[in-house]
Amino acid sequence: MIIAVETASTDLSVAMAGPDGSPLGVDAWSSDHRQAHELLPRLLALLARAGLGLADCQAVAVGLGPGSFTGLRVGLSIAKGIAFSLDLPIVGVPSLEAWLAVEPECRVAVARAGAAEAYLLARDAAAPIVVERAALAGLEGAIAARELAAAFGLHAATPPDRAASAVAALGAARLASDPAGDDLERLEPAYLRGPRGIATVPEGAVQWL
């Protein structure tokens, strides 16, 4: 079984899946305050409802962003902590790719990149881009967190409520071809921009999340 955490926005989710990525359960919730302290209790509760525990896990998948700096740091810290303590492989999954995977009818995934900007990933695009809020006017077919959709006027946007299930499925696909997964020490969020106060990105083992 693989467990997954997705925390790139204020719509958070945790999930579990079979080794082939088949969904076994998901829990999702929204929080204006990014209540990351709920992540581990909700994950444990999800496992418990299936009569399982962390000892039954074979791997960990985690959404890497881009998105909320704080959310990504907390999500990756929890995922890394589980992987380290249980000696499990870990695999990072681009969050916006997972959002699009879980909502195949959506054309673009949008995450907040600041007060007036957003990260935008179009389906089949190579990578996310940063766009001004004005560029989102009239955008249709988007998957976006409720908080961003309300702030940027994307009233018809679909929230990423089951995104962790796609993180689990995409992570399982990666592990099928690369059972070792990612380097635990070097795995870091895909910020696209450096966190406040950090001018350069360090090389080697991660010194900040």
Q: How many whole angstroms does the radius of gyration measure?
A: 16 Å
Task: Note the overall shape.
Answer: globular
Distance between the termini: 26 Å
DSSP summary: helix tally: 5
Overall helicity: 25-40%
The largest pleated sheet is described as: 5 strands, mixed
What is the ordering of alpha helices and beta strands? EEEHEHEHEEEEHH
Beta content: 15-25%
Mean pLDDT: 91
Please give the order of strands in the largest beta sheet.
3-2-1-4-5
Structural class: alpha/beta
Low-confidence stretches: none
The strand count comes to 9
How is this structure best described in words?
The protein is α/β, with parallel strands linked by helices. The protein contains five helices and nine strands. The strands form two sheets. The chain has a five-stranded mixed sheet with strand order 3-2-1-4-5, sandwiched between helices. It has a four-stranded mixed sheet with strand order 8-7-6-9. The protein starts with a strand and ends in a 32-residue tail after the last helix.
